[in-house]
Amino acid sequence: MFGLxxxxxxxxxxxxxxxxxxxxxxxxxxxPAGVPAETVAAAASTTEAATTPAAVTVARDxxxxxxxxxxxxxxxxxxYRLREGQRxxxxxxxxxxxxxxxxxxxxxxxxxxxxxxxxxxPRRGSAGAGAATAGTAGAEPAAGAGEAGVRAPINLNTATAxxxxxxxxxxxxxxxxxxxxxxxxGGFRSVDDLAQVPGIGPKRLEALRPHVQV
Length: 214
Prior knowledge:
It is built from 7 helices and 5 strands.
């Protein structure tokens, strides 16, 4: 075969066996005593994996971006994500800007917004009435009002739950529903919207009408 004699083939085979034996002895010399060869191979594989750089994932902190509900007299009431450090003015602009009925003077447009904040842009002419709800200590009663005086109507878009409960026939449950409806629908456009609040029927609406406004 290939012009080699039998003696030459035997010599080549013997050399191959000697080389294989020398290689095996070298591996055995590097392996610690009492440790199987399989363990040495697994350790080598683990070491190689450990030296491979792992991918680093940086989680984005969404808490730095406040989510704000803008309602009332804006063109597109809704929930918007703003950048950290932005102001009430920016929230109003994100909601399409104020309507022609908006009273921006009633807001602190320079205030920083916070996460989960609700920004309600009041209707022109209603902000002062809302502020007057609490009344003024020692004020003289209005003419013809008698001893109790005249109480300004409550603004449905700015009233708190406690203020709403001062109305006849409005308890904690109804006050909570009014505030929830206001939040979910971008505020009240008219007093008639109260009819859409669960628990307020036609009779109760007519009883409340003289005492509320938007």
